[in-house]
Amino acid sequence: MMHMTFYWGREVTILFDSWKTNSWLSYLLSLLILSLFSIFFQYLEDKRIRFKNIKNNNHPSSETNSTTTPLLSSKISGSFGAKIAGAILFGFNSAIGYLLMLAVMSYNGGVLVAIVVGLAVGYFLFRSSDDEAALAVDNPCACA
Question: Is the pTM of this model over 0.85?
Answer without folding.
Answer: no
